[in-house]
Specification:
The chain is built from 22 helices and 7 strands. It is mainly alpha-helical. A hairpin with a 2-residue loop joins strand 6 and strand 7 (391-392).
Length: 470
Amino acid sequence: MAAAQGGLIERQFKLSEYGTNIRTELMAGLTTFVVMSYIIAVNPSILSFNGELNVTQVATVTCLVAGVMSILMGLYANIAIALAPGLGINAIVAFTLVGSMGLTFPQAMGVVVAEGILITILVLTGVRRYVMDIVPTALKQAISVGIGFFILFIGLTNAGLITYSTNNGETTATTSGLLSLTPLNTWPVFVVMVGLLVTIVLTARGYRAALLIGIIAATITAFIVPGDVATLPDDPLKGPDFSLIGDFSFGFIGELGILTAILVVVSLMLADFFDTMGTFIGVGSQAGYLDEDGNLPNAQKPLLIDSLAAVAGGVTSASSATSYIESSAGVGVGGRSGLVAVTTGVLFLLALPFVELVNAIPAVATAPALIVVGVLMVGVLGGEAAANAAGKVKRGIDFSNVEEALPVVMTMLVMPFTYNITNGIGAGFVTWVLMKVSAGKARELNPALYVIAAAFLLYFLRWALFDAKF
């Protein structure tokens, strides 16, 4: 280790400053990749919903963008946060811009490119960093906890442990009905239980590779049990198809009209802006990147890479790429430096010839890792117990103070309940400003918080004010 830390890797990634080593960073990068790899299957399934885009083509650009931008994040910003096309925006692109508003996919990707350019300008002018720094500490903690609950909810649903049911108790494949506990009598649930048991036991015993080992154990189990819980693809060596690169158009402006086009671009920008902020706060808190005020020092570098990733996602027709909250899985096994992101990026590129083979890892195998990571992220509520690189978080959230408690609870619960990080953050900002103004403390608020709250209020009222379809 000493020899390695005296060489190029130590100079580039400053492993000794982070208190880590090459082996730990490589293991963390592998863990992050395994947990994130679901996007290789999910992104094509969303973007190719109407048959206009080819699954292999989308899988190819998904791996390409995730690989290149994660490597750039690691080399330039030196943090353990990887990037890939983001869930949420890809659904807006497919089902709203294309499905409801009638845009072609090149035009829809043009919207993504425009959004990425806009948010890059906000980074270069310092606006994005300024907004991150003025967010109250309690809201930052609430965002981290809310994302933890969100990841936990994703893990439980991916595991099939909770589902939706009708009033007569019958399970439905849609999100209509009531959430209920799934009968624990299926092989997929058994696979989840094996993975969860292994992960919990190893985590309790202090094994940093607990998440990865749990995923491997669950995947092996999935291939052993009956019922085709996990299957190998028919043509694992089909190879990549790069034909979607550059297939975007700004023709959406003429198709939608200037006003609607602006609203669409700004709405995507808001989602990208605050999803990234939530990821930086959530992963940054867990990794010890945040200072005692809950801010991310040197945030300009990762913000710039994240913004350029949005542009890259649109240019390649992969949809907007963003920093991934699943990076917390790699941090959970001890990853701290940019070597984690570089490792994850390299693995995405190495997956290009095998874009279908990666899909052999079923969602039920990665679900236990998401469940455990989600629970661990709720630890921010401990306040003083949540140590970071600069010291201690000043205090825990004061739930006895309704001015603070209401916005915090709204932030934490709206995220998982609406399955949307941006909605939770927006609810927190709006209620925070409303509570402070109602308590006669309007002058205590930074003027920028009023602007942010007003923007989110416009976001929430877009249907009523503009009859918006997005």
